[in-house]
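Thread title: Can someone regenerate the structure for this chain?

I was given the following input by a collaborator and told the matching structure tokens would be attached. They weren't. Posting the sequence so someone can regenerate them.
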Amino acid sequence: MTRRVLVLLIVLCTAAWALAPARLPASAQAPRTITVALYADAISLDPEDTNDNLSLSVERVIFDGLLGFDQNMKAIPQLAASWDASADAKVYTFHLRRGVKFHDGTPLDAQAVKINFDRARDPANKLKKLNLYEMIQAIDVVDDATVRFTLKQPFGAMLYNFAHPSSRIISPANIKQGEDAIARHPVGSGPYRFVSWTPGQQIVLERNPNFWQSGEPKADRLIIRFPTEDASRVALLLSGEAQFIYPVPGVQVEAVSRASGVEVPKRWSIYAYGVAMNTQHAPLNILQVRQALNYAVDKNALIKAVLGGHGRPLEAPFAAGVAGYAGPVQRGGWPHDIAKAKALLAEGGFPRGFKTVLWLGNQTETVRTGEFLQQQLAEVGVNIQLVPTEAGTLSSLRYKPLRDNQGQLNLTGWSPSTGDADWALRPLFAGESWPPVLFNIAFYKNPKADALIAAGLATADQGKRTRDYAEAAQIIWQDAPWIWLQNAEILSAQRTTVKGVYALGDGTVDVREAELIAR
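Best answer:
Regenerated them for you:
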């Protein structure tokens, strides 16, 4: 072989090596990362002490429950392979999957389940979701894979409670570390493990290689970011930095949906939005005043101006799509009638109106809603000071007991994350649900409504339950502890390179099945 031929061979081999696709070891390949941008930071990652949908959305990928929900909010098995319920709705028995382990290697067994629900139902722990579990009288470990719950009385909504996103199972070892450890360094058995939390910026999760569901998860890493401004979320999506965002402001839906490589799925939520009025605080303790404020607000104009038309007026204290919804209490919602509003204010003793304060979140769309309400109520002489507040601070203010609670008007929303009418009414309107127990921030109480809500839980007969809740809804609607506003569409947006991410009807987000796909 001549020197010239040898040089030529070396050059050709070098060129072929340079053009060949790189074959890196698996450990050196870039991780399949999916970034999700949501509207606010989490408050806590302790599922049994969580009331906000953002935190629940993060928790549902770290933890599993006995049951869960699919994208249509139908109950599905998770850690329970199967279950039985007694005819009288008092005894529930769950048969667990075998071989499941928590992220720290602790085995998932019936004893672990008992430890979790004993913690959740103990009033001494003062957990926010106590009301979901306080009806449990006893929890028995039948064997390693079987756990039996016996209730104090029939509770027709109990399976919905077990499917609620707060009903997740925490590693017993994590529980021993204390509540701060659970809230900031959670350990579950879900598809993703907790890595880090930079408050106000992002939460990072990584793939659980020992997840019990074959083929899941399909991503290596999840990054959940928290841009509170609508424009920032949209910018992250359009630039490709985020593959999924929620929510998309209604006024930007058309523009976002026209962007290349983007799609905007829509579905009706089971969210009820309104203004909770402190019924123990003058002048909101006067029925005519509360009714006047309902007449003063043009709900259709609000939906058009702030939501871009992606909503409909509330026609009952909770939305269609919830199990136990019997139909509208008032078709079309409370009508807009300035003359009627002024007449009721005069009848209630405030012909010139009054001054009050509206607490609300600091997200863009929320603030715009507050500004709209401020303008509308000013037309009847009610002058509102807006106080936009960060989510965690606002939650702590709202959950103070009556004697310490300075709330007057609260712009808020509620989705029954059990999917059932019990959780649509009882936390918001039962007399037993005043803060700090639950979210009755209107401090409303009507014994007739209380009796009907209780009756709806005392049977597993869905027909009777629906009738009880319908009658309770009639009473609550006329008592007007809220300014009833709207039921909105769920508006999320995603790159066409991702699938398996859903914004559910209750306002939570499910990323458990997230997957990057080639386009």
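Residues 19 and 58 are 43 Å apart (CA to CA).
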